[in-house]
Amino acid sequence: MLAFVLLSWLVFEALDLIDFEGVVTRVRGIDPVWAAVAIFALLVVDVLLPVPSTPLIVLAGTALGLPLGLALAVIGSLGSSAAGYALGRFARPWLVRKVVTIDELTEMRRWGRQFGPWFFGVARGIPMMAETVSVSAGVSRVSFRTFMLFTLTGTVPICAAYVFAGSQAETVEEIVMICAAGLLLTVGLFYLLRRFVKAAP
Predict the structure, then answer these.
(1) Helix (H) and strand (E) counts for the chain?
(2) Which one is predicted more confidently, 182 or 2?
């Protein structure tokens, strides 16, 4: 996915298909209300649709600045987690299996046994894992209060880092590099933790 995004960006720029100059200025000129509504909605539906949350959080910083962008990113991310939990807790089994597989639920239980509730916070920063963890928490009937509290502990620092970086970005290239670096770091963390979990008795 990362390679596809970077390659598309290079091709568009090389063929002059998109004018990247001034994009950041135009993003910052968007009506803050509409930008907030769009970003919030996309973050919440991330549990059901393949919406890339990392670029959205970075763009929240670019479009809205640090204080408002951070508040929006945190609330939107928590909304996505709450929606995933509700889906796992109350939805019909056939619908839950459309979002997560039995194998994924089994693996999430292993992670939960290894890290305890701190796992909810760690997973929030790993792409494509946060949604699976949210649904599995609902399926396992973990206390909603505990789930949201530990999810919050992982959400705030991750969002703060991305939003701050986005607020400082001045070009599309910088935004793309921030997203790429974040994706590489979190995917690397995921594989390290996965090896640790598999090696555990």
Answers:
(1) 11, 0
(2) 182
